[in-house]
Amino acid sequence: MKNLQDEKQRDLLQNKSDGTNKFLTTDQGVRINDDNNSLKAGERGPSLLEDFILREKITHFDHERIPERIVHARGSGAHGFFEVTNPIPELTKAGFLKEAGLKTPVFVRFSTVAGFRGSTDLARDVRGFAVKFYTQEGIYDLVGNNVPVFFIQDASKFPDLIHAVKPEPHNEIPQAASAHDTFWDFISLMPESMHMIMWAMSDRAIPRSYRMMEGFGVHTFRLINEANESVFVKFHWKPKLGTHAVVWDEALKISGKNPDFHRQDLWEAIDMGNFPEWELGVQIIPQADEHKYEFDLLDPTKIVPEELVPVKIIGRMVLNKNPDNFFAETEQVAFHPGHVVPGIDFTNDPLLQGRLFSYTDTQLSRLGSPNFHEIPINRSVAPVHNNQRDGHMRQEINKGRVSYHPNSLGGGCPFQAKIEEGGFSSFNERVDAHKVRERSESFADHFGQAKLFFNSQTPTEKSHIVKALRFELGKVETAAIRVRMLGLLSQVDMQLAEKVAEGLGTSVPPILETPINKGVSPENEMGNQEPRSIESSVKSSDALSMIKNPTNTPTIASRKVAILCADGVSAASVMNMKNILLKEDAKGFVIAKNLGSVVTDEGGAIPVDFSLLTTSSVLFDAVYIPHSEGLNDLAKNDDVLEFLNDAYKHCKVIGADGQAIGVLSETPFASKLNNDDSGIILYSDPATETFALDFINAMASHRIWEREENLYN
Ligand code: HDE
Region Disordered: what ranges (predicted)? Predict the structure, then answer.
């Protein structure tokens, strides 16, 4: 099997253009002599219609926007490769999974769901995690999210869900936020969303970086082997840098300080050679186990706990190249869960089945033509031959008189592939049923796994969920919606509901008044079933917690440290820290009152990366104040004290050596400083290696959660 790693880049090369050392021309290739002045009747006269150069330029400009994605409009993409580490030929005939070491090019797009294209990266939201594999057998898209379940069980509710979460239609407020009445109105009437709500209110919805998110295929899919035997499969992406989040107050501030935070983080990491990496894992469920569990494998509001079916790692994905052009690649890429290759197939998950219709349909209005597969980023590296013809913007020039099958005039070509020749064939599933608009009884449990998720969280994480719900429901104006939500939350965990209620200044309604116990009430029109709670056979799962997550091996790779400096700073201290950070693939940035440079104690100059005006503590993972003789200007600067206060509040590591320790006694948190805080690293000797090592070890724990008010202590 050929190694395809660079094949997509070679393919894209044919469409790349670079104007360096070239003449400026019209779209027709005519060289332009004057691009600054339109053609006029006299220098002060009217413009002339015949000015084809002006007309072409303005016309193109007038049409340069396309509709943004109805969901996942805001996103960032990158190129890379997928490499098989543990092939599974016994389970699937998909060529790109069959051979150890085989590399397949990929393009990945991460996104938020609700916000418009220009919205903030740090919205509380699910993140899209869509991977396009350019395999030798055609395009395979794994169009997943960073959360393994979904809000709804049936595709017919998707437009309702999205209408509810998007800005309200009368005033288009709020942008990229679920904290408003229509969203919670809908959710409070959809008990099936409760598992997903737990994830969305957890810190999973405010990741530190796209590079520090897990990814999930969500639905159960099928793998099919050469013998046409099938197993069920759940897909998982496990990030090498661990799964980490920011805190909510930080997210809100980042949204103002740098709404491109995630986009820039991904871009810079790749630019600097810190290539993001994930392992691809599969949970395999034999056909015979289809009905073995207390949940239905076809229900997208359920996970398969890793305690029941472990995740087997089969490969890794590395993102190593930024796009050359955002529009051509990241905006025009068209994913579709229906893009599968032989060896991978769908299940009857009713959400997945609806998606199989939606994704091509949406490209028709977004990209404007059924020829969107010809756009370079969407083009397969496997040969494409068929009898599809024409349409807007067709690129391919199909030769010959035959565009139908069967034909004799074209010698029967292009000809069908037998299964042994790689022809796709669907899993031969027997379906024998009545045509009904119903939901399976096996989908009726809406609380069992919401409880499992909540019970798997650490006290810190539970506390964050309570605070998130207090924030979101606190923004809801209609009291009845809040009460309905408290009723649903009480079905997940009474203490959770009570703590949320306390923050809302109200109380949890008696169980009988909540829609769940009314069964099919006017408010709960979900058809034939009465929602219920089936206890999960797994009581707690570390994989569901970010803090206990087994993917979190301590590392500070690619993390950013703010080094607060003023004139007189110790050159030795700054260099000591910078060097140790570099050894760990992290980076220190010098921040001072003004740009330019600071003068060191040795009389040298250290260039300043950011002024206090242009950056903020929320854009860094930790803060260091290097030694300087006497208390320098830092201790008197309000911006510095705010910088440190935010870092403290957001549970970040703060370090100071030598006389810089004095700066901390000026901060609002000075009275809280004590020896038990493992994130405050103070060394009276300046520039020691032990200090820097202690600092980076503390940073590797990500955040010092003990500092926070914890509602579950
Ligand atoms: Fe999507 N979704 N979706 N979705 N989805 C789209 O397709 C849709 C769902 C996901 O970076 C749209 O090309 C329906 C689940 C991602 O370009 C659209 C339903 C999951 C992306 C669409 C779902 C996803 C999309 C909008 C319920 C996780 C961004 C633009 C039946 C497994 C891909 C587009 C990118 C995008 C429809 C539910 C993930 C409208 C109807 C569940 C990551 O076709």
Answer: 1-29, 513-541
Could you say which of 483, 515, 544 is where a domain stops?
Answer: 544
Q: Is 534 within a domain?
A: yes
* CATH number of domain containing 680: 3.40.50.880
What amino acid positions are annotated as catalytic residues? 72, 145
Q: Is 355 in the pocket of ligand 1 (CB under 6 A)?
A: yes
**Looking at ligand 1, which atom is closest to the CA of residue 70?**
26
Tell me the pLDDT tens digit for each residue of 269-317: 999 999 999 999 999 999 999 999 999 999 999 999 999 999 999 999 9
pLDDT digits (tens, 9 = 90+) for 20-76: 999 999 999 999 999 999 999 999 999 999 999 999 999 999 999 999 999 999 999
In this structure, the answer to whether residues 504 and 620 fall within a common structural domain is no
Same domain, 538 and 586: no
- Number of C-beta neighbours around residue 571 at 10 A: 18
Distance CA 228, CA 211 (A): 36
| Region of 558 on the Ramachandran plot (φ > 0 left; ψ -120 to 50 alpha; else beta) | left
Which residue blocks in 523-597 are alpha helix, DSSP H? Answer: 571-583
Which residues make up each annotated binding site?
A: 69, 109, 158, 355, 359, 366
Confidence of residue 633 (pLDDT cuts 50, 70, 90): confident
CA 153 to CA 131: how far, in whole Å? Answer: 23
Output phi, psi for 284, to 5 deg: -105, 125
Write the residue with the smallest CA distance to atom 27 of ligand 1.
Answer: 155
What is the per-residue pLDDT across 457-494, written as a single tens digit (0 to 9) for each?
999 999 999 999 999 999 999 999 999 999 999 999 99
Domain that holds residue 234: 75-378
| Minimum-distance ligand 1 atom for the alpha carbon of 218 | 32
Which residue lies with its CA nearest to atom 31 of ligand 1? 155
